[in-house]
Amino acid sequence: MKAQLQEQKKQCIFCKLISGEMEAKKVFEDDVTVAMVDIYPAIKGHTLFLPKEHYPILPYMPQEEFKHLFGLVPGMCEAVKKAMVTTSCNVFIASGGVAGQQAGHFLMHIFPRDQGDGFFNFFWKQKETLEDEKLKVLQNNFPIMMGNHFKRNPMSWHTGNGEQPSFLKEVYENGHVLYEDEQVLCVVPEKGVVKGHIEVYSKVEKSLIENLSIEESFHLFSTASLAATLVFEGLGSQGTNIILKSGTTDDNSEGKLCVHILPRSQDDGLNKTLLWEAKQPSYDVDSVMKKIKDKTWKVKYKEEAKKEETLIVKPEVIKIGSEKKDTDEDGSLGFEDEIKKAIEKIRN
Ligand SMILES: [Zn+2]
Question: Which domains does the chain have, with CATH numbers?
Fold first, then answer.
């Protein structure tokens, strides 16, 4: 499998764009991540944000890099929004060919959004109800997966379920709770876009992704990523889309901050609306690139003050981090065991 990855890496356009072998329209770069404008944008200001290292899908990414990448999402979204002068944004991730994943290099799409912007890809109808027995499978397994996640990534703030914020009242009323803690609420809505549609809401921020801290964004996306694994495992989905909605748009009328996980199958017909065609933009990409680049200077990854026990393992983390080839085989840095099984499914 490693040899296969090395071969894939050699032919990867994104690895070439990152290394400079091909010219990229970069707007941000640090030691772990890079952002560039998409030269075939779905919407003006369409930006790609990705790890420098080649990982075909999310579960391959070592925890430290996952945290770095997703911890910077609020900052990247803020920069893109400011540059394009919009009030809202989306983050879009496709895992698996059926979900529209085209590159072998994991990446996320950031779309600056506004109400009335004419972008209707995420304007979906929610009409599918998940069968009770399948809902039970999700409800039984997800708290266990989240428990394992906390065992491997102890968070000092986590002691229980937390409060029920009043701005999420309707979500509690119209959905089946899979899991909640102090920072997130995870539900299966009564009616979903597809069966097994999961919504992960932030409890700490009502609407805007840029108001989350690095730690809070990491936890929101960790939960979303594990929910995606859950639908692979629990529902046998062939792919997933992870779509963050932030701020008010025509497809997010209340402006709630929420990550949607859509389990995908070959014949669900969703790609007609969700995906976009690669076409030349009608505007000057270089001027958009310059505008976004001017706003990313603030984006910076800072680890929160570490607890004592974390400090003790730190030298080991650094050593492993410099030998990237082996990180995903290291239990302490790798993701959940459950994910390994999911990877096999997504590769088919
Ligand atoms: Zn690559």
Answer: 26-116+124-348 (3.30.428.10)
